[in-house]
Design a protein that fits this description.
The protein is of the alpha+beta class. The protein has seven helices and nine strands, in the order αββββββββααααβαα. Strands 6, 7, 8 and 9 form a four-stranded antiparallel β-sheet that branches. Strands 3-2-5 form a three-stranded antiparallel β-sheet.
Length: 256
């Protein structure tokens, strides 16, 4: 009995030391608390010893992807749209991630959805106006770079309180809701046709003006106002027409 007592005495400290051994993998941290009191965070990789009386919680510091689900929201103009975003994030502050929120992973999901909804509500899906001023406004469809920057900035602000670092955020899906997709497609097509015809007319007017100026400068023919009007009309018909023009040669005169 007396011979086994020294072995027992040596075994207890050794067992106590073994219980404190903790393996920390790359991009991993261990948060230690002692009876509710925060003691520190260990980020050194490899085998470390931590007081066995400490409560240890491992947290991954690796980058994670959040592939948000499609959300049906109304844009700035009230049009129902479908929108989704992809967020790349990781834990930057282990203390905030552990103690500022209940579940930081769920917190990222909920706040990301809220940020996407808010962003969709302050911008229009597309500019439906024809003037140049409206064309310069940022829209969800055309301002992808600016929209992604604003989404990343808002997510950074929302998630910083949980110690989350946003590495990248971008819109992954954007479309009109099915119930208005057909009508909006027709409207976009009509706007495109109007814009194309406007460009054609602007170009035709410039070409007519250039033709009249060159005829006058080189004194090829003297045109009175009536002949100028006729030439302008003919040139505009040829340049703005959708079908190839069939020229008719006039061997006589415009006057009876």
């Amino acid at each position: 009995m007396n011979n086994s007592l020294p072995g027992v005495i040596l075994f207890i400290p050794g067992f106590f030391q073994v219980l404190g051994l903790t393996v920390i993998n790359p991009n991993e941290a261990v948060v230690a608390t002692f009876f509710g009191d925060y003691q520190g965070t260990i980020k050194r990789n490899g085998l470390s010893w931590v007081n066995p009386l400490y409560k240890k919680k491992k947290i991954s510091l690796r980058a994670r992807n959040l592939n948000g689900q499609k959300l049906k929201v109304n844009d700035k103009l009230g049009n129902p749209i479908e929108i989704a975003a992809v967020v790349v994030w990781r834990v930057g502050d282990t203390v905030k991630a552990c103690f500022e929120v209940d579940d930081y992973v769920k917190y990222v999901e909920i706040q990301s959805e809220a940020a996407v909804r808010h962003l969709a509500g302050i911008y229009a899906y597309d500019s439906m106006e024809d003037d140049d001023l409206a064309a310069q406004e940022v829209t969800l469809r055309d301002g992808s770079g600016k929209i992604n920057e604003m989404l990343e900035g808002e997510l950074t602000e929302r998630l910083s309180r949980a110690g989350i670092e946003v590495l990248e955020a971008r819109i992954s899906h954007l479309a009109y809701a099915p119930e208005i997709a057909g009508a909006m497609l027709q409207r976009q097509q009509a706007s495109a046709v109007v814009a194309a015809r406007r460009q054609i007319v602007n170009g035709a007017v410039g070409m007519v003006d250039m033709a009249l100026a060159m005829l006058s400068e080189k004194q090829i023919v003297e045109l009175d106002e009536e002949r100028k009007a006729a030439m302008v009309s003919n040139l505009l018909v040829v340049l703005c027409g959708e079908k190839a023009a069939t020229p008719i040669l006039n061997a006589g005169t415009l006057y009876p």
